[in-house]
Prior knowledge:
The complex is a heterodimer. Chain A has strands spanning 4-7, 10-13, 19-25, 31-37, 43-51, 54-57, 64-66, 76-78, 87-94, 105-106, 110-114. By secondary structure, chain A is mainly beta. In chain A, strands 2, 4, 5, 6, 9, 10 and 11 form a 7-stranded mixed β-sheet that branches. Chain A has a 4-stranded antiparallel β-sheet with strand order 1-3-8-7, with no helix packed on it. The N and C termini of chain A lie far apart (29 Å). In chain B, strands 2, 5, 6, 10, 11 and 12 form a 6-stranded mixed β-sheet that branches. Chain B has a 4-stranded antiparallel β-sheet with strand order 3-9-8-7, with no helix packed on it. A two-stranded antiparallel ribbon of chain B has the order 1-4. The chains are: A mainly beta, B mainly beta.
Amino acid sequence: DGGITQxxxxxxxxxxxxxxxxxxxxxxxxxxxxxxQDPGQGLRLIYYSQIVNDFQKGDIAEGYxxxxxxxxxxxxxxxxxxxxxxxxxxxxxxxxxxxxQETQYFGPGTRLLVL
Amino acid sequence: AQSVAxxxxxxxxxxxxxxxxxCTYSVSGNPYLFWYVQYPNRGLQFLLKYITGDNLVKGSxxxxxxxxxxxxxxxxKKPSALVSDSALYFCAVxxxxxxxxxxxxxxxSGTQLTVLP
Lengths: 115, 117
């Protein structure tokens, strides 16, 4: 899992609650990414950020928000507007992005469950 | 648009036998192709990538993949499977756009490999 940490490992959300997933990297990577993984669907891109204080929506951004105040950190907030948040969330980073040959390295993931 | 297909949800192989996990892609332009492996409740680990050059790419843990442009395929292979190779495997593609930027990675739906002792 390299130098990318995600916390918590498991997270429980109540109805109407916002929750924040943490992603930190010590690889000095410029670009960071958030993916959602559902069984049988592969990974889908939620948000990505190529530099500090800048980020773009991915394919499924609705109901999520992010910030990039520091190069090392890219937290993801799952808002109450996300009606089906139960999934495995993966954070990734690259040295720069989105250069085509750059390899994305992944964190260990956070599993979000709804109570 | 770019897309990746992994036609087999599940592949079973006996330990010691060769294994193949299939991947086909569809892109407009030159593809950059990646294979990742995921163990239960873990993140994805990078195995190998094709950028350009030799069509046979060697990667981690004895895995290799063959890029076939005419068949738009990038199958993952290993000559002799181990029980510890049992995991979920993902193929991914990225393409360089004409204006000089690159699209984000697109992942296949994954193939569960089970190596039987």
